[in-house]
Amino acid sequence: MKILIADDSRVMRQIVTRTLRQAGFDGHDLVEAADGQEAYDAAVAEKPDFILSDWNMPEMTGVEVLRALRAGGVQIPFGFVTSEATQEMRDAAAAAGALFLITKPFTAETFREILDPILG
Amino acid sequence: MTDVMKVDDLQAITEQVWQSFLDPEGSDPLLLSLLEPSGGDVAAAISVTGAWRGHVVIGCSTAASRHAASALLGVPSDEVTEDDISDALGELANVIGGNVKALLPEPCALSLPYVVATAGVRWPAVHEICRLDGMWRDEPIHITVLESTSDYQGAAAS
């Protein structure tokens, strides 16, 4: 499975990658994007099977990326990994078509619980 | 508005960050201290605008910032770059700030994090409402929540 990890922090992309491995999701093909525009472009060009995205990013926010993908007919499963999660954000994420919203800091256990139905 | 944030809240958030990202093995906890440690060589901050305005700041020694980048990236300390250190501290400010924001009155917006590699950083027109000081791997760390005392409505407010 090809997974796109979008976060403007290289450190956080590394932590997400490591946590995926610790949660038992080894062997997937990982693609990275360092801002929202890169995430959108990579989603269209690389056609990943799943997208894990930060919310607050330069160029386009994560939810703008999701809305743009859905508006263009791209239905790749999409989940957020973000440092803040108000009810308003959860509602906006769900309305845009996100599967879940994981808040930072997270653990491998959280990843396992939420991602197992998708990646397991 | 000293009620918006208590030191216990900040401690719970900080401990969660340490347990998840900086000390998952439980071998290098942040040891909290009542004494204000010296040595704030580097600071990363994230600003909050809206119904509550201020900053969440994490400051530490240069050595602690290098340890943090090393722990977050999973590479030896002597292999981390200045960019890694800025990224790591900025992300810590972002994660702590995001969790602090959840306790603040809504609506508020978070800025992207910014990092200042200068000793003795001063934040204008603020007062401190919450502070944690501690030692991590024998290096000083301090986390502060600063509330703006000016009437300026930031451009990023929404």
Largest sheet of chain B: 7 strands, antiparallel
Number of helices of chain B: 3
Helical content band of chain B: 25-40%
Kindly report the average pLDDT value of chain A: 95
Radius of gyration of chain B: 15 Å
**What's the main sheet of chain A like?**
5 strands, parallel
What structural category arises from helix and sheet content of chain A?
Answer: alpha/beta
Percent strand of chain A: 15-25%
- The quaternary organization reads as heterodimer
How large is the share of residues in beta strands of chain B? 25-35%
* Average pLDDT rating of chain B: 88
Span of the ends, CA to CA of chain A? 11 Å
Form type of chain A = globular
Care to count the β-strands of chain A?
5
Q: What's the overall geometry of chain B?
A: globular
The helix/strand series of chain A, from N terminus to C terminus, equals EHEHEHEHEH
Features:
heterodimer, A: 120 residues, alpha/beta, five-stranded parallel beta sheet, B: 158 residues, alpha+beta, seven-stranded antiparallel beta sheet, 3 helices
Helices and strands in order:
The complex is a heterodimer of chains A (120) and B (158).
Chain A: E1 2-6, H1 10-22, E2 29-33, H2 36-46, E3 50-53, H3 62-71, E4 78-82, H4 87-96, E5 101-103, H5 108-119
Parallel strand pairs in A: 1-2, 1-3, 3-4, 4-5
Helix pairs in contact in A: 2-3
Chain B: H1 7-22, E1 31-32, E2 42-50, E3 54-60, H2 62-73, H3 82-101, E4 108-110, E5 114-116, E6 126-136, E7 139-148
Antiparallel strand pairs in B: 1-6, 2-3, 2-4, 2-5, 3-7, 6-7
Summarize the structure.
The complex is a heterodimer of chains A (120) and B (158). Chain A is built from 5 helices and 5 strands.
How would you describe this protein?
- The complex is a heterodimer of chains A (120) and B (158).
- Helices cover 47% and strands 18% of the residues of chain A.
- Chain A has a 5-stranded parallel beta sheet with strand order 2-1-3-4-5, with helices on both faces.
- The longest helix of chain A is centred in the N-terminal third of the chain and has 13 residues, at 10-22.
- Chain A has helices at 10-22, 36-46, 62-71, 87-96, 108-119; strands at residues 2-6, 29-33, 50-53, 78-82, 101-103.
- By secondary structure, chain A is α/β, with parallel strands linked by helices.
- In chain B, 30% of the residues lie in helices and 28% in strands.
- Chain B has 3 helices and 7 strands; from the N terminus they run αβββααββββ.
- In chain B, strands 1, 2, 3, 4, 5, 6 and 7 form a 7-stranded antiparallel beta sheet that branches.
- Chain B has helices at residues 7-22, 62-73, 82-101; strands spanning 31-32, 42-50, 54-60, 108-110, 114-116, 126-136, 139-148.
- Chain B is an alpha+beta fold and 158 residues long.
- In chain B, a hairpin with a 2-residue loop joins strand 6 and strand 7.
- The A-B interface holds A 8-12, 14-15, 18, 56, 58, 82-86, 88, 103-107 and B 16-17, 19-21, 24, 69, 72-74, 83-84, 87-88, 90-91, 94-95, 97-99, 101-102, 106-107, 110, 112.
